[in-house]
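Exercise 3.2. Students should predict the tertiary structure of the chain below and write it as structure tokens, then compare their answer with the key that follows.

Predict this chain's 3D structure.
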Amino acid sequence: MTVTAPQGFRSAGIAVGLKSTGKPDLALVVNDGPHRAAAVVFTSNRAQANPILWSRKVAQGGPARAVILNSGGANCFTGDFGYQTTRLTAEAVAAVLGGDADPEQILVCSTGLIGSGDQAFRDKIVGNVPALAAALSDDDTTAPAAILTTDSVEKTAVHEGDGWRIGAMAKGAGMLAPGLATMLVVLTTDALIDDAAADRALRRATSVSFDRLDSDGCMSTNDQVTLLVSGASGATPTDDEFTAALASVCDELAGKLQGDAEGAGHDIDIEVRGAASVADAVEVGRSVARNNLFKAAIFGNDPNWGRVLAAIGTTEAQFDPYAVDVSFNGVRLCHAGGPDRPVDECDLTPRQTHVAIDLFAGTHAATIRTNDLTHDYVHENSAYSS
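Answer key:
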């Protein structure tokens, strides 16, 4: 179980023909209560897909009842027709849930090729909502596969609290950059918390996890992270306890997104310490994560610390470039802005790569996750159908 690990949830994933492979491509997660609260975080890209425009309205209107997600088409830049497709999808879900379900309680997520979302796309989704609802189960394992695009593995997580749980599923393998990353994430919990507590926890959790994943510097139009709260356990953790647990789950998922990044050969954690502020640490780390010369060097197993210094010198963070230390995989190659240990003492052949940058400008720290720049990444994204 993943999103149905907490009490009060059902989910399902089925194939409706959106993917040419015939693999599952439509998923539904339903909050059966008894309590309903929700929080949602969206991409900060100004170019936003129709499901994001719809879901923003839902999030402002009150607790969401369910979230339906499709892969195999982004429904982005498809005009009013695409927005109406999203509306019809929500209406279809509300109809099968029955009772007092309202379309404006249904969040909608899509992922796939931008510009895709024609009549056939609409018909395959809307027409198959009844079959999707019929497959709902409280011990479902099919939903995580239905949201994947270029992902090679399912990404799930479960946290056991004191009498309550968090469940999660995610997708994402390319266009991984903050705000959020190219991802769809559904988090569920049976903890008894309200909308305000859920929103605080989600924003804090995403800010130190998904927002610090910067695989390729490309921001998506369709990112959405949704937290649904059923309260079915009856247990109420403290704000700090729940936020820490949610952040741990999000961090675990961010690591899985990093590890499945398109074509990557190295998973690189850039730890910046000794910064004057957390914002400075994040800015410095991101400057390295987005530097193609640095990323190409890591692909070639070359611990080129000079490229690190060149990258951080482009920031406005407080530090003296001639006081900085840089280490690769525990070997300090640069000390006080100059050469230290011989580079041949550093082995970059393992996939996991750790770069430590000490700015000696303060007491704050942050870690940014990224990947190397590989032939496979270029090939996969040049061959992606348009």
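Discussion points: The chain has two domains: 9-259, 267-382. The first strand starts at residue 9 and ends at 14.
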